[in-house]
């Protein structure tokens, strides 16, 4: 948290000039991107390749991370007075930075899952890349429209989704329990542009997002799901 008011009152001369100079320093961070390639599996889980890039225009530090809630809020159901929450376990997570394998640290904070690649300081200007590869299990529920796979995204991203059966639609969450159609059919299966995670009722794009993908059943047995209400 920035505490500027009281700090200024106690600074004079060189101290004040130094702080104001630091505040006026140019921003070292250029364009950042986030793309996700998601493959839904026949048992209702999915695997992800999440690629993040950061441009530096001046020397600075970079750390790539991913923050996910531990459960997805399901669409509102009049049959249940409390909201349904679907948990999907993260498994087999690996990371790399600029083409080199690195360790992924993780921690559970309340109902939040944090994953980080090692931070790096004093990097020269240039383009830097971080990649997280992981899988989730128990993310799909069947209904009359087809299998419904609930994807958790750490933030708005350029998304490409494939599935064992034909994908008929995708819906993006605009607020907890409410979803609207998004994306379109593509050679890969379904594509959602990063700017579709927006609009007046949408969560801020750097917050976790939820996408529900509907695809045709293939006859395979879906993995058990973990749903709680509350």
Report on this structure.
The protein has 230 residues and is mostly beta strands. Helix content is 7%, strand content 53%. The chain is built from two helices and 21 strands. The strands form five sheets. Strands 8-7-12-2-1-15-19-18 form an eight-stranded mixed β-sheet, with no helix packed on it. β9 (105-109) and β10 form a beta hairpin. The longest helix has 11 residues, at 13-23. The radius of gyration is 21 Å and the shape is globular. The two termini are 32 Å apart. Mean pLDDT is 84; it is low at 1-20.
Overall radius of gyration:
21 Å
Number of strand segments: 21
Element string (H = helix, E = strand): HHEEEEEEEEEEEEEEEEEEEEE
Coarse shape: globular
Q: What structural class should be given to the helix and strand makeup?
A: mainly beta
Give the helices and strands, then pairings.
Elements: H1 5-9, H2 13-23, E1 29-40, E2 46-56, E3 60-62, E4 65-69, E5 72-73, E6 84-87, E7 89-97, E8 100-102, E9 105-109, E10 112-116, E11 120-123, E12 126-137, E13 140-143, E14 146-153, E15 158-162, E16 167-175, E17 178-181, E18 184-185, E19 190-192, E20 209-215, E21 226-229
List the main descriptive attributes of the protein structure presented here.
about 230 residues; mainly beta; 8-stranded mixed sheet; 5-stranded antiparallel sheet; globular; disordered N terminus
């Amino acid at each position: 948290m920035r505490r500027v008011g009281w700090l200024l009152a106690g600074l004079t001369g060189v101290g004040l000039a130094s702080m104001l100079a630091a505040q006026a320093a140019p921003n070292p961070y250029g364009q950042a991107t986030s793309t996700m390639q998601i493959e839904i599996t026949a048992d209702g889980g999915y695997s992800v390749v999440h690629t993040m890039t950061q441009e530096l225009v001046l020397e600075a530090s970079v750390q790539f991370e991913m923050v996910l809630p531990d459960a997805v809020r399901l669409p509102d159901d009049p049959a249940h007075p409390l909201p349904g929450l679907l948990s999907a376990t993260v498994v087999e997570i690996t990371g790399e930075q600029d083409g080199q394998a690195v360790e992924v640290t993780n921690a559970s904070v309340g109902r939040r899952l944090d994953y980080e690649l090692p931070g790096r300081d004093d990097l020269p200007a240039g383009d830097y890349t971080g990649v997280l590869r992981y899988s989730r299990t128990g993310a799909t529920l069947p209904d009359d429209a087809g299998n419904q796979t609930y994807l958790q995204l750490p933030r708005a991203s350029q998304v490409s989704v494939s599935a064992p059966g034909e994908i008929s639609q995708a819906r993006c969450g605009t607020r907890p329990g409410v979803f609207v159609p998004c994306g379109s059919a593509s050679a890969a299966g379904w594509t959602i542009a990063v700017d579709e995670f927006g609009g007046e009722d949408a969560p801020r794009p750097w917050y976790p997002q939820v996408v529900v993908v509907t695809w045709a059943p293939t006859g395979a047995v879906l993995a058990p799901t973990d749903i709680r209400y509350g």
